[in-house]
Amino acid sequence: MSFMTKPKVAHPRSRHNDLGLTRRDYEGTMSTLCAGCGHDSITAALIEACFEMSLPPHRIAKMSGIGCSSKTPAYFAGTAHGFNSVHGRMPSIATGANAANRDLYYIGISGDGDSLSIGMGQFSHVIRRNLHMLYVIENNGVYGLTKGQFSASADVGSIAKKGEVNLQSPIDPVLTALALGCTFVARSFSGDKEQLVPLIKAAMKHRGFALLDILSPCVTFNDHEDSTKSYAYTRQFYHPAIHTDFVEPTQNIAASYDEGEVFPVTLHDGSNILLRKVTKDYDPTNRRLAFDFVEENLKGGEYLTGLLYIDESKPDFHDLAKTDHRPLNEIPYAELNPGAGAMKKILARYR
Predict the structure, then answer these.
(1) In the chain, what are the domains?
(2) Lowest-pLDDT range, 166-180, 227-241, 323-337?
(3) 205 phi and psi, to 5 degrees?
(4) Distance between CA 108 and CA 91 in Å, rounded?
């Protein structure tokens, strides 16, 4: 059951991070998802990324909505902050929490139904506000909790386990995010931990909204031969556009590449993303090129993965709102409450 905790037994030679914690310290409760679910692989990648970044658990805030994907926050960083909101409304909760305390690492876990159906409106506006958070979509193309109906991301021609054929055009979260001006757009596959962990780390360090769409096959309702979100299909049509690595600002870059093979992107905190281009003409800072490239590959039924677009120049939510750098609970009451006179001036502006 979901409230069952894992035994906190670690090998005496387990590797420790800068905080003296092991990977076990970033685990949560026992997973109740189906054996082999891609979502559990994503959980493992999140645990690895948080451990390698030496994130203090009390500075992690996990948010989710409703669906199989929204169980994920219970399975990692068990001592971190967490909030399981109503269906499709996680972005509002994340925005409110972020506005009150910007000094946390916000991780939102959602699904293709939670974000692209009932939550589409909120998903659009949290991108528009450039809220500083990592937003993970665990994308499997079905509603697993309600027995496998097509979701908004199901491809045309995809056949359900019971034989129905999807005839409606899908909403692609990557193309949607690019069209809305998202400042960090990436796609990966739950079975590719080598690619997924660096992308999570880079997204966590990005200042602004970071979307990570992760193809995560549903082994119960969408892993059959005619599914375009199955393990077999994804592995066959899975094409890395860019090989991504992440370098912490405290570490030296010790790598040797031929000239022209590496495209370094420096984040605001001084850390670096190293991109090794697979195609010569691909530039992850060119939004139009990224949109066209992703769209062209989708027409051929192929998934383009890696860091697809990044823009470190745009102001984030707090820059736009000119908020105080201090969390609200650290601001003296006299500053938070300007008094009746100030309130009268504010109200007068609306008359």
Answers:
(1) 23-321 (3.40.50.970)
(2) 227-241
(3) -90, -15
(4) 8
CA proximity to 85, closest of 61, 66, 60:
66
Residue-level pLDDT at 4: 63
Tell me the β-bridge partners of 83: 63
Please report where in the chains the tokens 């293709």 appear, as a residue: 112
User: pLDDT grade, residue 130 (50/70/90)?
Assistant: very high
- Tell me how far CA of residue 328 lies from CA of 39, 55, 94, 319, in angstroms: 34, 22, 15, 16
As a whole number of angstroms, the distance between CA 33 and CA 69 comes to 9
- Distance (Å, rounded) from C-alpha 274 to C-alpha 263? 6
% of the chain at pLDDT higher than 90 = 54
Mean pLDDT, the chain, whole residue set: 87
pTM of the model: 0.87
Buried b (16+ CB within 10 A) or exposed e, 209-229: bbbbbbbbbbbbbbbeeebbb
Count of Cβ atoms closer than 10 Å to residue 318 Cβ = 18
Residues contacting 11, CB < 8 A, separation 6+: none
CB 94 within 8 A of CB 131: yes
What tokens were used for 270? Answer: 């001084």
Tens of pLDDT, residue by residue over 292-312, are 988 888 888 778 888 999 999
Q: Is the pLDDT of residue 224 over 70?
A: no
User: Is residue 239 within a helix (H) or strand (E), and if so which, with residue range?
Assistant: strand 238-240
By residue count, the chain amounts to 351
Tell me how far apart the alpha carbons of residues 153 and 136 are, in angstroms, rounded to a whole number. 15
d(CA 302, CA 5): 39
Question: Contact 150/123 with Cβ under 8 angstroms?
Answer: no
Using DSSP's 3-state secondary structure scheme, residue 60 falls into strand
